[in-house]
Each structure stands twice: as structure tokens, then as C-alpha cells.
Amino acid sequence: MDEPVLTSLGPHLGGRVDGIDTGAALDDATVAWIRDALIDRKVLVFPGQKLDAAGFHQFARRLGSLQQHVLRKYRHDDFPELSWLTNVAKDGSVDEFGVIRATSWHTDGSYTQDPPMLGILYALEVPSRGGATIFADMCHAHDSLDEPTRTKLAGLTGLHLHGAGPGGDMYDGSLADDQEEGFRDAVHPAVGMHPLTGAKLLYVNATHTRKFAEMETGESVALLEGLMAHATQPENLYTHDWSVGDLLIWDERSTMHRGAGDYPPTDRRIKLRAIVQELGT
Length: 281
Ligand SMILES: [Fe+2]
Prior knowledge:
Blueprint: E1 5-8, E2 15-18, H1 28-41, E3 43-46, H2 53-63, E4 64-66, E5 82-86, E6 118-125, E7 133-137, H3 138-143, H4 147-154, E8 157-160, E9 186-189, E10 191-193, E11 200-202, E12 209-212, H5 217-231, E13 237-240, E14 247-251, E15 255-259, E16 270-279
Parallel strand pairs: 2-3
Antiparallel strand pairs: 1-2, 3-14, 4-16, 5-16, 6-14, 6-16, 7-13, 7-15, 8-9, 8-12, 10-11
The structure holds fe (ii) ion.
């Protein structure tokens, strides 16, 4: 196989990968290459992949240990470590409200005490127009804060609860009554550290960050909204416009994301998802 090629897609994050067939059995050197590229670019796009559920599962499993989706109804019947991101029901009907789901800024699993490392999506059907996913670089968001705000944040702790942030009503669905994540705050420092690089990162999001432990709710929400505005300035974003066959991996620790939510609501949209809890060694 030719050497893979990484092409930057923006100033801070986003990279296109050519020369890797994600459906093939990958050798250790290729897996290490993907991991390095991911740490460098935070979001990687592999266009033109041809995968079935088994092939997608095999690829995701090569990157690390997989976590089942917190919402049980989305899990794949044959591969419960995979889940569907779709607006098409089993009877073929299209959920027209799917278009607004997950359109507020979030980091997957921030409402858990041990959030996952990576998200992976593979596009099977895409809308006729719109439907992008937008990513923000939370390392650069941190580093570009003014000094007083950085100092203030260094002493703050975010309380995260599923969908309980100021933008949480745009999120996708509710947890089952017996799921602990539905009623217990996960506690994360507002400034986190990337487990692989040691880089500082802003670890708050509009969907799941309910408040800062050290502040009243009103003051917390005002600060959070200011941080969201700062983190989502255009130069800090990568917008991915989907094509069928795109496989996309993102670093959950150093980014947040949202759906653009601007596609025709009756258009079908089907993706397969995997969640990597820990990278393999
Ligand atoms: Fe998400």
C-alpha cells in the first residue's frame, strides 16, 4: 500500500486522509499513523470508504476499546458496540424532528465521569443538501482566552448532567429511568488536560454543562455562554459536509461538535457510529 497522505483542512483542526482502506486489516504501523494524525488534526476524514457493519466494527476495534451507546434504542442489533445515527425508523418512516437533534454544542459523554476518547461516524445515506457536522478546537479555545479568564477558569469545576446545560433541550432523547447518568452530576475541571499530549483544553459545553460548582446558576450560565461564543468563532471551527462513504474520527477530549441541522427534514440521513473509550496500546 502507498504511504497514507494527510492534508490539512483548516488552521487548527481537520485533516483529510487518503491512501488508507479502512475496510482492510490494518497493520500496527498504519494504526499508529492514524493515531498520530488524529492527535495532530483532532478531526480526520477518510473519504470514499466501502464498509459494512462488520468492517466498520473491525476498524473501530483496531483503534481501541469500544463503548456501547448510552441510549439503548440506538444500538445496532448485531454489533451492540455500534449505534445508529439516523432519522429513519425501522418501518422506513422519517422522523422530521431529527433535524434539530444534537444541534447544540456538545462533547459526547461529558456527563459521564470517564468520557470516551474518540467518536467515529460512517455515512451510509446523506441529505440532498445541508446536514453538516461542525467541530470546535477546545485546545485553541483555551489557549486563545485572555489571561484573566484563563486564571478564573483554572479554579472552576463544571457540573455535567445529560442534556441539563443551557442548550440541552436540542439534544437527542432521554436516558432510561435506571441510568445513573440521568440524575448524577459528572464533575470535571473547567480546564482539562489531554491524556495523551498534556495540552490544556476547555472542557465545558452548552448541552451538558449545568453550572460551575463554585458559582450561582445565573453567573455560571452567563460565563458558559461567553465561553461558547469564544470557542465557536469561525477560525476555531471545521465544518464537515458529508458525502456517502465518508468515515470521520474525532478526538472527544479536545473538540466539541454540533449538527448544523439545516437539511430538508424529510430527507433520509443514516450513519453508523462507534465510540472508542480508550485507545489501544
Ligand atoms: Fe454528538
